[in-house]
Design goal:
Elements (H helix, E strand, L loop, with lengths): L13 H15 L3 H8 L3 H11 L8 E5 L5 H8 L3 E6 L2 H5 L7 E3 L12 E7 L8 H11 E12 L5 H22 L2 H9 L7 H11 L1 E9 L4 E8 L1
Parallel strand pairs: 1-2, 1-4, 2-3, 4-5
Antiparallel strand pairs: 5-7, 6-7
Helix pairs in contact: 2-7, 3-4, 6-9, 7-8
């Protein structure tokens, strides 16, 4: 999968990206939740709840929350009766997690879990931060059992040209200012630029299917400013 052209300078790649992402999330961990709520007008709360419901798994399912951050999705998984396990590259984020779920510091491309050992997996706003998105999908297919499911939430660009323009202004100019006032300015300047890491939507859907998931769907949320990718393990 090929990422889109990057505006405003090159973004880090490979191991440099791993180090940059880990350092960035360590830095913003103390106020991560606060900034999220403000810059999304709390819409992220509803998006996450929809993400866990979209799994369609029976109560009591063992579900990984990958790039778990402070544990929002872990809490939502617990609330509907699942058994979450949070995984994140950033130790700083895990130290600020507000969840009773077990937490593991690990790279999502090299998960410390056996083959077909979990019922499902979720992630929130993490796809563009992985070094190898296709490799992440393959790792999902390895650890999720046949019949299990994945539900992956991330940002998107509205298909409507006018809404897309307004969103680009807000995401590119307003969000960095909010993040800079409340947290780490460099991190929130990176945030809008990091969307360039995401391949075209059809390429993401195709690659998730190639990894071994059926019924892959991409749904736009809130007029297209967020997207939810779902699929079931064959």
């Amino acid at each position: 999968m090929t990422a889109r052209p990057v505006a405003g300078g090159d973004l880090p790649q490979g191991e440099e990206k791993v180090r940059a992402v880990r350092s960035m999330f360590d830095a913003i961990a103390p106020r991560y939740d606060l900034v999220n709520r403000i810059m999304t007008f709390r819409m992220d709360v509803g998006w996450r709840r929809r993400t866990v419901r979209a799994l369609g798994l029976p109560s009591g399912s063992l579900v990984l929350d990958l790039a778990a951050g402070t544990g929002d999705l872990c809490r939502d998984l617990h609330d509907i009766g699942h058994r979450p396990v949070g995984v994140d590259l950033s130790l700083g984020m895990l130290r600020h997690a507000r969840t009773t779920a077990p937490l593991v510091q690990a790279d999502a491309l090299r998960l410390p879990f056996p083959d077909a050992s979990v019922d499902g997996a979720v992630s929130g706003f993490a796809l563009r931060n992985f070094v190898d998105l296709g490799g992440f999908f393959d790792e999902l297919a390895r650890v999720v059992r046949p019949g299990g499911a994945v539900s992956l939430l991330d940002v998107a660009e509205p298909p409507n040209p006018l809404l897309r323009w307004g969103h680009s202004v807000y995401f590119g100019r307003v969000v960095p200012k909010i993040g800079g006032l409340l947290s780490d300015p460099a991190a929130y300047r990176y945030l809008p630029r990091s969307v360039a890491y995401l391949p075209a939507p059809e390429a993401i859907v195709d690659r998730l299917a190639q990894a071994g998931f059926t019924g892959v769907e991409r749904r736009l949320l809130s007029v297209g400013i967020a997207q939810l990718l779902t699929g079931r393990r064959t």
